[in-house]
Design brief:
Blueprint (H helix, E strand, L loop, with lengths): L7 H11 L2 E4 L3 H4 L10 E5 L26 H8 L3 E6 L36 H8 L5 E6 L5 H6 L3 E4 L19 E6 L2 H11 L12 H13 L9 E5 L9 H16 L3 E5 L7 H17 L22 H5 L4 H14 L1 H24 L22 E5 L13 H5 L1 H5 L6 H6 L3 E4 L9 E4 L5 H14 L1
Parallel strand pairs: 2-3, 2-4, 7-8, 7-9
Antiparallel strand pairs: 1-3, 4-6, 5-6, 5-10, 9-11, 10-11
The structure holds glutamine.
The site of glutamine (GLN) has 14 residues, from strand 4.
């Protein structure tokens, strides 16, 4: 399968309808002739990943005219390996959001619903998902801090992969919450997604959080020694803590149908428990805004981006008027993050959240058969309860039309935060996870989660499932 190259007029029409790109390049036809592992493939890049030949806006007024002098490592790798970039894709401002509605360029709409007006795409990698769904590109890069690749992938009935934390370089990816940020890949085709992953899966000395070469070798060693590539039957855990009330029937039946297909294929389904999953949402919304506050402090009107022309640095009034250009949701996060880092709250909330995060990591780690190379705890493996993969839903709801949101849903931020309940635990634990469409063409996602570093196991499994569907 490959995306159809469009004329500029067709591109303009789709752009007007779905608001997919923040910047479109006209000369992609030339680029798609390149050779290399990604030769002939066209892609979109989320507009929080820097590119030297196109602006990088983060969907924010504050960076509306920002032009990076260099390419992010992932962009360099794509270009070097033959990928052609069609444009930069729309997003929730700085990656903050889950509906694709918080960009200064306006919301992105879901091409899965060509006849229905303005159904949300989900975010924050909304444009990256929409470009794939509309067949404008073969794949896109997004970023996933708490679910931003997986949620729009589910709403678009496509694949969305969030690799292990540190697997793919973040150099040149504008930070939201750096202990959670990852670059992810979206595609309709699992084979293409894997090719892109293979190109991007490299140690990068420019990224201090890049997974070290010796650990990559260690993981590969275990993968080979245990012959995981040849594995046919997997042990798949389903955590009881992911059971939620009020999940639409359509989603539940897609999930149960998928599980029964897996059982028919001979995979073993194992009930597991990870009690700390219930803490994931509050942990995430304590830690991520605190990190965001520190990352956003660089937009001060001096070093990057917008500067209020009326204000003067010598009058000491530059900062506030400049920062009024952040959108509403980003300002919410700045308030929340600063609060979380204030004296009492720092002790009572922030430190506590960090401790609870470690507990969640340990609990998630303990369910896997494969060792965690970061924790060096090989000895506790091989219990009969250990699993190869965990399975759960990606989203607890279906995408809605913009008109169908109640004012409470739009005004109270926590109503949006709750969307990420199934995606955050893996982000907090840094685990590789793929959202796949259990029923092609339906806006529903199921996640397949692997042990830290075992991204290949997740992708092997998905390729196998894809070939039986
Ligand atoms: N929806 C989550 C948030 O707003 C996750 C965003 C993301 O993964 N970038 O923070």
């Amino acid at each position: 399968m490959s995306a159809r190259l469009r004329t500029l007029a067709e591109l303009a029409e789709l752009q007007a309808k779905y608001n997919i790109f923040t910047h479109l390049k006209g000369d992609v036809l030339k680029g798609s002739q390149r050779s290399g592992p990604l030769g002939g493939l066209v892609c979109g890049i989320k507009d929080n990943i820097v590119t030297k030949d196109m602006p990088t806006t983060c969907g924010s007024e504050i960076l509306r005219d920002y032009q990076s002098p260099f390419d992010a490592t992932v962009v360099k790798l794509l270009k070097k390996n033959g990928g052609a970039i069609l444009g930069k894709t729309n997003l929730d401002e700085f990656g903050m959001g889950s509906r694709g509605m918080h960009s200064c360029f306006g919301p992105t709409y879901n091409p899965l619903y060509p006849e229905t007006d303005q159904v949300i795409m989900g975010g924050s990698s909304s444009g990256s998902a929409a470009a794939v769904v509309a067949d404008l590109v073969d794949f896109s890069l997004g970023t996933d801090t708490g679910g931003s690749v997986r949620l729009p992938a589910a709403y678009g009935s496509i694949y969305g992969f969030k690799p292990s934390y540190g697997r793919i370089s973040r150099y040149g990816v504008i930070a939201y919450a750096q202990s959670l940020d990852t670059v992810g890949i979206l595609s309709k085709d699992i084979g293409i997604l894997r090719k892109v992953y293979n190109v991007l899966n490299n140690y990068d000395e420019k990224d201090p959080t890049s997974l070290e070469e010796k650990l990559r070798v260690k993981i590969q060693g275990y993968y080979k020694e245990q012959k995981l590539k040849e594995k046919k039957k997997y042990r798949i855990g389903i955590a009881r803590e992911f059971n939620q009330e009020n999940i639409p029937e359509e989603i539940m039946s897609a999930l149960t149908g998928f599980i029964s297909t897996l059982m028919k294929q001979g995979h073993e389904i194992i009930p597991i428990s990870i009690p700390s999953i219930k803490n994931a949402l509050p942990i995430y919304y304590t830690i991520s805004p605190a990190e965001a506050v520190s990352n956003l402090s660089r937009y001060d009107g001096i070093r990057y981006g917008y500067r209020d022309s009326e204000s003067d640095i010598s009058d000491n009034i530059l900062f506030a008027p400049t920062r009024k250009n952040f959108g509403k949701e980003v300002r919410n996060r700045i308030l929340l993050g600063n609060y979380n880092l204030c004296s009492d709250s720092f002790k009572n909330n922030y430190i506590r959240a960090q401790k609870l995060r470690v507990q969640l990591i340990d609990e998630m780690d303990a369910v896997f058969e494969a060792p965690n190379v970061l924790l060096n705890n090989k000895e506790k493996r091989h219990s009969s309860d250990n699993v190869d993969l965990i399975l759960c839903l990606t989203s607890m709801n279906l995408p809605k039309g913009l008109k169908n949101f109640s004012s409470a849903e739009l005004e109270i931020p926590t109503n949006e935060y709750i969307n990420d309940i199934f995606t955050m635990p893996m982000s907090l634990a840094g685990l590789p996870t793929l959202s796949l469409p259990p029923v092609k063409g339906k806006p529903i996602g199921v996640q397949i989660i692997g042990q830290y570093g075992f991204d290949d196991v997740v992708l092997d499994f998905a390729e196998r499932v894809d070939s039986i569907q």
